[in-house]
Amino acid sequence: MVNDLAFSNRNRQLSIISCGEDRTIKVWDAVTGNNLYTLEGHEAPVYSVCPHPKFIISVDIDTITAVQELTMSLGANLAREWPTVLTGHAIHMWD
Fold it and tell me: Which parts pass through the membrane (predicted)?
């Protein structure tokens, strides 16, 4: 199940970024519908994504925020390891 999606126009390539119950973030080519890459690393379902030209911020159900940095190499999209994981929120909004 997809929980959130966002559009990105990074390097003038229109993409759709989705996240969901499978604990992944997927980047799709908005024109062809092809999956460009799948980002893994969350230990719980991912509920929100927010793209930036150089990284993707994502939040899972355990209130973990991960910053996934993206790089370009030889014209291909490459995802590196999760460089930053932010924790610290002690309560949920609905508590």
Answer: none
Q: In this structure, what are the phi and psi dihedrals at residue 48, rounded to the nearest 5 degrees?
A: -155, 145
- Distance in angstroms between the alpha carbons of the first and the last residue of the chain: 25
Q: What domains lie within the chain, and their CATH numbers? A: 2-86 (2.40.10.480)
- Amino acid type, 23: R
pLDDT at 17 over 90: yes
Q: Which residues are within 8 A (CB) of 25 and not within 5 positions of it... i.e. 6 or more apart?
A: 17, 18, 19, 38, 39, 42, 46, 49, 56, 58, 68
Burial of 41 (0-12, 13-18, 19+ CB in 10 A): middle
Using DSSP's 3-state secondary structure scheme, residue 54 falls into coil
